[in-house]
Structures are given as C-alpha cells and as structure tokens.
Amino acid sequence: MVVKDDTFRVLIAGAGIAGLATSISLRRISDLANLDVHIYEQAPELLEIGASIALSPNGMRTLEKLGVNNALTDEVGYRGPSGIPQIFRHWKTNQVISVDTHNDVPDPRHHTTRFHRGHLHAALLEHVPRESIHLGKKIKRAEASQDRVSLHFEDGSSAHGHILIGADGIRSPVRQSFIPDYKLRFSGKVFMRSTFDVSLIEGKVPDLPIDAMHWWGPRDNFFASRLGKGQYTTVGAYDDPRTAEEVEQSIAWDQKGNVEFLRERYKDWNPTIRALTQLTPSTNLYPNFAGDALSTWVFGSRVTLIGDAAHAHGGSFAAGGSLALDDSLALGLAFKHVFNSPSRPSLSSDSINKALVLYSKTRQPHTARLLRIIHNQIKKRAPEDATFEEEDATLVARMKTRPNTEWLSEHDVETAFAAVINQSTSERYPEQASAVKEESKQGKAVDENIRLQGSKI
Ligand SMILES: Cc1cc2nc3c(=O)[nH]c(=O)nc-3n(C[C@H](O)[C@H](O)[C@H](O)COP(=O)(O)OP(=O)(O)OC[C@H]3O[C@@H](n4cnc5c(N)ncnc54)[C@H](O)[C@@H]3O)c2cc1C
C-alpha cells in the first residue's frame, strides 16, 4: 500500500471498542484534513461476541461527545431504576452491605449502563465507514522509522502509514513489537460469563433485584444484571492456582465452560444466586490477566497505544470500555490541538510526536493509578489456608476499605486534557521568558556593537 504525500494516513490495529472509537474521534474531534484511516482486525467477521460490559458516566459522556448517541438509548443499554451504579450484597444473607453512588451525573442517560459487548460494538460500528475496516488481517508485528509506520500481517502482506495506533487489546502485538519483554500476570481468577434472553429468568428467581447486583463473598463475587435489548447476564468466578503460562495454554479467551461447575461453585450461596445459576444456560471462560503500567505510550515518535493495549488492567472495576472511549477522545483532542492550531504544522515526526505526548500525558497517569490499585488488590487476597471466619472478616474489612472510585467513573477527559495544555504552556513560559531575556541580552550586545562600530566611523 503506497502512502500518498497529501494524506494523513492512520493505521489502527484492532477493531474493538478502542479501535472503532479512535476512528470516530479522529474524524469528528480532531477534524484533520485529508485524513485516511485504516483499521486492521484479525477476526474474519465482526460478530456480536463477548458477554456484558458496563460503561460508567465518564464512558457514557464520552460516547455522547463522540456523537455515538445511538448507544445512549434505553434500548441498547440497561440502567437500573434506582439510579445507583453499584449495589453490593452479602453472599449468604443477601443484605445490602455497600453502595456506590453517582456524585455529579445530572443526565440519567449518563448513569452507569450495562450492555452486551456486541451491542455496544455494533453501535460504534454504525459510525465507522465499513470500507476503512480490513478484516482477516492478523498482525504479526509493527515497525516504525523516522518517516513512516508499518504493520506486517500473518498473510504476508503489509500496510504503511504516517501514524500507528495499537488498539489491539490486552495481548497487543503492537505493544509487543516495541516492548518485547512485556509480560501479563495472571490474577488467579477465571470468570465464568453468560448472556442470555431475560425471559429465561423472569418470574422464576426469588427476590431478584431489578437493579444490577454484586454479591460479595470472602473469595469470589457473583454479578447479575439486565442488559439492553432484553438480555441478561450472570458472572461468577473461580480460583485457578496454575501459572500464567499454564492457564494461557489451557484456557482460550471466550472458551465454552461447564455450567455445572458454576452451579456447584455457588451452591452454598443465597437462594437468589442459586436460582440464577440453575437458570444460566451456559458459560464462557475468561481468565483474568493484568499487566504493569508502561513507562511510555509513545514509540519512535509515530506510534502509540490505546485501550487495553495501553493499560492491561484486565477488566477490573468494569472500567475497560470507558477507559478505551476516554483514551480515544483524548487522542482526538491532542491531534486537534496540534494540527488545527493557527500555525497549521506539517505532518512531521515532531508534530506527530507532540500530539502523542499530549495524549499520553492526559491518560497515562490516570490509568497508572488504576493499575496500582489493581496490583495491590491482587497481592492482598486472603491466604489459601484461611478459615471461614478469617475469610468473612477479610470480606468485612474489604468492604470497609473499598476504594472510592469516583475519580475513575466520573473522570472528565476534557478537563484533564485542558490541565495538560495549561501545564505545558506554563512550562513553556519560563523558556519563552528566558528566551526573551536572552534575546534582549543579545539585543543589547548588538546595540552596543552598533554603537561602538558607529563611534568608529
Ligand atoms: C471478543 C471479545 C470479547 C470481549 N468481551 C468482553 C466482555 O464480555 N466483557 C468485558 O468487560 N470486556 C470484554 N472484552 C474486553 C473489552 O472489550 C475491553 O476490555 C475494552 O472494551 C477495551 O477495548 P479494546 O478495544 O482496548 O480491546 P478489545 O475489545 O479486546 O479489542 C481489541 C481488538 O484487537 C483485535 N486484535 C487482537 N490481536 C490482533 C492481531 N494480532 N491482529 C489484528 N487484530 C487483533 C481483537 O480481535 C479485537 O477486535 C472483550 C474483548 C474481545 C476482543
């Protein structure tokens, strides 16, 4: 593929939530001239796969800013009638033991919303030109030189452009090309997820709350919620003591699980959960991996990462979808700021690098904070040999010390981006001030020279 000089060719690796949102943001937010976006996706077809995904107010507001209003309707996503984003109940007594609340979310459409991932994905897809998506393109590796970026695919073909955005998920081959020794860590948990028609459980489960519900046990949780388009989800988990390598080799992401195992696992929990597991028709398995924060998000001036590729947090706090959307908005704002500035800079490595640095400064500290919390929580798990009383005590302590996540769920990317711009402007002022000082010193010297030369004449 030849890159024409008058186009701004952007290669996006991966057509997941982050890849599609980035394509939308670059076109609508950055408003770049001659933009030519190409998305490369390994899947041969974009099917409605996955299970449930939640978006917090930050993600819902970002969808609106991106113009993806079709995802804000009550048909596509589900918002519980209480307006409470997270309700936590005790696994055995079914008592409410904690709640999270929205702090400053006046528009109910921005309340925490639960989707089938396929429906959210399809809503984004409506805003992306289909001809820009190249399916069946499994990326093997990525490269960057001074003036271009390249993706090399397993089918032997390659694509070239000016900018590369790795939106290729938690196991990102783009990230791996630039940080070959980056390793994910297995959290020790495997999630058993299921989505099915709500009619399978309606009227058949005692005390079933209408809102989404987390039941907390000493070791595992159970989650159940309605989703948009008449779907329902249940999510359980189990501990897997094996190493990351062993789990990688034996459980594929989205692999079919054994629903009897889910039922057995939760057989001592309260009757509502027992009934839900009995009615759950099947499960799929999702081993939970997470990775450390990256030291940089910018590689060779022209490459960056977005979504799970940039922050491999493994879905904790149900933040992955919202973070991916916020990343895409921040990237659009950064390109707008640099390339739509009055000086209209050319498509040089320097100006591209400047936009990518502004993007990473907006997003990297925020996501690194989340990764720190997640890794601390993984370390703090109850020991394997803990007695039941010790485990219940740990549960109570965990509820008491549960971190407030409003900084995450109500984060405002535009404000964060404005703060980065303000900071970099004030950092530039001292330079400008010292440059002015230097100039005036030189000016005085020149004036003095002229005066002396003049006196010689
Ligand atoms: C099939 C699937 C189902 C999921 N289901 C859920 C779910 O039920 N609940 C939930 O909370 N999260 C789920 N996730 C993860 C969730 O979508 C992300 O955590 C979050 O939305 C951030 O999105 P992302 O675009 O960064 O990553 P992803 O959504 O993982 O998207 C990454 C994209 O890159 C593509 N890709 C990966 N490797 C290559 C390669 N070598 N070459 C080309 N393309 C590649 C993938 O096929 C995918 O389309 C799922 C992800 C996938 C891919």
Automatic annotation (TrEMBL):
Instruction: Please give the residue ranges the record annotates as the region Disordered.
Output: 428-457
User: What keywords would UniProt list here?
Assistant: FAD, Flavoprotein, Monooxygenase, Oxidoreductase
Top-rank taxon of the source lineage equals Eukaryota
Query: What SUPFAM superfamilies has UniProt attached to this entry?
Result: FAD/NAD(P)-binding domain
Q: Where is the composition biased (Basic and acidic residues)?
A: 436-450
Q: Which residues form the FAD-binding domain?
A: 9-343
* Molecular function in Gene Ontology: FAD binding; monooxygenase activity
| Family the UniProt entry places it in | Belongs to the paxM FAD-dependent monooxygenase family.
In terms of PANTHER family, this protein maps to: MONOOXYGENASE (PTHR13789), PUTATIVE (AFU_ORTHOLOGUE AFUA_6G14510)-RELATED (PTHR13789:SF309)
The protein in question is named FAD-binding domain-containing protein
* Organism, as annotated: Penicillium canariense
What does UniProt list as this organism's lineage? Eukaryota, Fungi, Dikarya, Ascomycota, Pezizomycotina
